[in-house]
Amino acid sequence: MAKYEKVGIIFNGGCSSLKSIKLSPDLEYISGHAFEGCTSLTSITIPEGATYIYNSAFAGCVSLKSITIPKTVTKIENNAIGKTADSANIEGFIIYGYKGTAAEQYAKENGIKFIALKYTPGDADTSGEVTVDDVLPIRQNIAGWDVKIDETNADVDGDGELSVSDALFVQQIIRLEDNAVRRLYGCRSFYNVGGVKNERCQ
Questions:
Q1: In percent, how much of the chain has pLDDT > 90?
Q2: Does pTM top 0.70 for this prediction?
């Protein structure tokens, strides 16, 4: 897997043997024709925080059958994604993204299949619910560990990057949901003689 810090400055397409790319988390844009003609490319991770994908950035990447666009991307130029070298749509190409974003708009304008991702603030591990298990991967990501995480869900404060504040927000979500459940079932806390906290629900 190749890693590029500033795409379009140190790399400019035509790499037929490149199969996968992990872009820098500090990346702000992907320049025009950056990976044009990379015919063996099958996988790329566009980081949360990227805002712009210029024209023909992935034109001719015929082995790339899908791509996930983060919600931070606000502009995708002509023929940037899902196009052959002669600007035809790549057969079966799918764009994964969030409703109301540039990803959905680009897909509609170009007749490309779009599948909307579910946005669940705090659900970093994509389990379908926000639990204490979501806090650890956020902290590991902040520490530089290579962990599987949904950065869009994990970025609870919406500032485009993962930080300690996101982990704290997740803990607050868990606490609020726990309190709501306790109120729903009429739970109350009490302490026994040994000072151990217990709960009793109706």
A1: 31
A2: no
Q: Where do we find the tokens 């994604």?
A: 81
Q: Which residues contact 142 (CB under 8 A, 6 or more apart)?
A: 162, 163, 164, 167
Bridge partners for 23 per DSSP: 4
Please calculate the CA angle 131-133-139 and round it to the nearest 5 degrees: 115
Q: Are 157 and 172 in contact (CB under 8 A)?
A: no
CA distance linking residue 9 with residue 185, whole number of Å: 59
Domains belonging to the chain, first-starting first, are 1-117 (3.80.10), 132-200 (no CATH)
C-alpha 83/C-alpha 161 separation (Å) is: 30
Instruction: Please tell me the distance from the alpha carbon of residue 124 to that of residue 98, in angstroms, as a whole number.
Output: 16
Token code pair at residue 66: 């899908």
The structure tokens listed for 128 are: 């379908």
**Residue that is written with structure tokens 């995708």 in the block:** 76
Other Cβ atoms closer than 10 A to 171: 16
Please give the average per-residue pLDDT across 122-142, as a whole number. 85
